């Protein structure tokens, strides 16, 4: 018989697992890993409301995507164009970024799988006498290691030609040059930290769902068990 068991710790672990997976996925897909040096506005870029020229803008560069500003001369307006600069894996600007993409993708796939499974832990707490919480926690720890490897290798690619075109000639491995780090990089780091927190917290979720109070309510014949 399926017993639906909901506790504060198990629910918090489930929510954190979902948040971490989405955070890492969004960061990976974003082009805001590097914020390039300011590009001056062209003479055609005029603000129609004020009559003055627009402020310089900062293009952004991701692992496989980028955002830059283009001018529509006929419409007398500017727009930001975002999309992948690499049509396939081999066109990613640096071998280090290719490795980063692989490690991050593997880590994110594991996190997404754990997030999907975590939703069902309210009904199923073990498979083949193995705690789902402990297995998921182990997988989250492994995913965290993949994410760390990816984030360590990423700055090594700052010396590639693509990064230099955004960050200036002084950019090199682990040196930003004229660039600054964007929100996607910090989000990836924060998600990695939360991944290890989830891995540790999974043990608390296991303890909460197998406590004496839960067993007592199961013995009383209750199918829906909610505990603080």
UniProtKB/TrEMBL annotation:
Gene3D superfamilies: 1.20.140.150. Keywords: Fertilization, Membrane, Transmembrane, Transmembrane helix. One of its GO terms (cellular component) is membrane. It is found in: Membrane. Its main location: membrane. InterPro entries: LHFPL. It comes from the Eukaryota. The keyword Transmembrane applies. GO terms for biological process: single fertilization. It is a multi-pass membrane protein. The chain crosses the membrane at residues 12-35, 96-120, 132-154, 183-203. Belongs to the LHFP family. This is LHPL2 protein. The gene is Lhfpl2.
């Amino acid at each position: 018989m399926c017993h639906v068991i909901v506790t504060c710790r198990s629910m918090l672990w489930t929510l954190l697992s979902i948040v971490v997976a989405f955070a890492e996925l969004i960061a990976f897909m974003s082009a805001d890993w590097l914020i390039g040096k300011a590009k001056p506005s062209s003479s055609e870029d005029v603000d129609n409301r004020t009559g003055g020229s627009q402020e310089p803008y900062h293009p952004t560069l991701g692992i496989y995507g980028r955002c830059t500003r283009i001018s529509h001369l006929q419409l007398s307006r500017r727009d930001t164009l975002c999309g992948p600069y690499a049509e396939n894996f081999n066109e990613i600007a640096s071998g280090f970024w290719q490795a980063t993409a692989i490690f991050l993708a593997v880590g994110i796939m594991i996190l997404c799988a754990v997030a999907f499974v975590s939703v069902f832990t309210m009904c199923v707490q073990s498979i083949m006498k193995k705690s789902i919480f402990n297995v998921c926690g182990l997988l989250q720890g492994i995913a965290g290691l993949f994410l760390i490897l990816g984030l360590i290798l990423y700055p090594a690619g700052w010396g590639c030609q693509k990064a230099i075109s955004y960050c200036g000639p002084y950019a090199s491995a682990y040196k930003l040059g004229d660039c600054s780090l964007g929100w996607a990089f910090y989000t990836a780091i924060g998600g990695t930290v939360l991944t290890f927190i989830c891995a540790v917290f999974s043990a608390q979720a296991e303890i909460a769902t197998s406590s004496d109070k839960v067993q007592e309510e199961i013995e009383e014949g209750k199918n829906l068990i909610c505990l603080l």
